[in-house]
């Protein structure tokens, strides 16, 4: 299973009536989304070349799949595809503070919802325990 992480820097005035602008381009801008990882999909040219060089193959089966099975090319725990599927993600490090947060989910969510939509769903949560009954 592949994960993708994003960091959002909240507006300094969270009660401000205007929603913060979300940009994936400018990390320092208030209200910006900062991608911390890159999707590893078998149809990426660099990933396809790496897989084929290792002796593997990708085919179309509803989506591009390594060995006709796995829809991601970076994962851990798949013993049969281990020679072709790496477990080392491409990441970007960012310092976070009390107004920042990180979103980590599996690849399935990113297939059906955009980065901006995910951020808008979680950006106003101040206390997960209180808002959702989640125990820390």
UniProtKB/TrEMBL annotation:
It comes from Vigna radiata var. radiata. Residues 1-24 are annotated as: Disordered. This is Probable protein phosphatase 2C 11. SUPFAM superfamilies: PP2C-like. Residues 1-21 have a biased composition (Basic and acidic residues). GO terms for molecular function: protein serine/threonine phosphatase activity. InterPro entries: PP2C, PPM-type-like_dom_sf, PPM-type_phosphatase-like_dom. PROSITE patterns: PPM_2. Residues 1-136 form the PPM-type phosphatase domain. It holds the Pfam family PP2C.
